[in-house]
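Q: What changes when N-carbamoyl-L-aspartate is included in the input?
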Amino acid sequence: MTTPSLPSQPPRLPAGGFTARRLISIDDLSDAEIAYSLDLAEYYAGFLNRSEPAPQRLAGRTQINLFFEDSTRTNLSFDLAGKKLGADVVNVPVSASSIHKGESLVDTAQTLAAMGADIMIVRAKEEGLHERLDKLLSCVVVNGGAGALEHPTQALLDAATIRSQFGRIEGLTVAICGDVKHSRVAGSDARLFTRLGATVRFVGPAGLMPDNDQFTDIERCKNLKDGLKGADIVMGLRMQFERMESGGKDAAQGYFEAFGLTHETMKLASPGAFVMHPGPMNRGVEIDSALADDPERSLILRQVFYGAATRMACLDALVGAP
Ligand code: NCD
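A: The predicted holo structure follows.
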């Protein structure tokens, strides 16, 4: 993979240090901590790119990955990231755990924390669960995806990917397209990119837009022509059928004809625009294969690469050796 030259020295800690002790929402990080995390992700990307062993900043630390919802990229990249930094990583086999004997999610998490966890990555749809765990557990709690609400490490890795291509986020226009309503990625991306100085737009049918009282500062476009105009990044989203009520399913009817991302529809964006997608993709539903697989226009695999590097950065910043 071609990536720009990557730094061989770690970035300097923010002036007041990295003081966040949880990552449940992007808002848990200060601007300086966000900038540091992105620089640190770039530093770790260098080790991955050169296939070099990374500093063992998590040696002796225990990391527990507790995923109550399905995951491929997020779970595996947290697993890889922890191992690359020398942590003891435990992946909880949720489908074979006591949850099926009626144990509550909180009891499961507390039991695991009592085994000496330093950091726990939790994916669950229950609203407020991460905040509750943060109060109850002595370990650092990281949000690996919370229902339709937040996915902060995905937003950070998306920002790291964009920055690796454009050298900046500030001043770019990002069109987030599709099932925004059910997407935790859309919400976290919008919050983070706006803070980093990008202009963000939501593009899609009205039935797949968030409620009107949410994201009031973000422009909404009901067609690709308006939505993609001047966009530097076009972020496709998966149709999240599992979260839709019948109304959402109606909105998804004929979606590809009106909103599908193809080489043709990318002509509506800036000439040098790139397509991204957090995955998993539904080919032919929200994006066509020719575009998704085109290395000249697609940053989708680079997102996966930065997924591991960014999660190394988050783990190190939150619980790495001082
Ligand atoms: C997303 C997720 O699970 O939030 N994927 C990911 O983490 N890379 C998006 C999705 O489920 O569509």
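Observations recorded in class: The chain has a mean pLDDT of 93.
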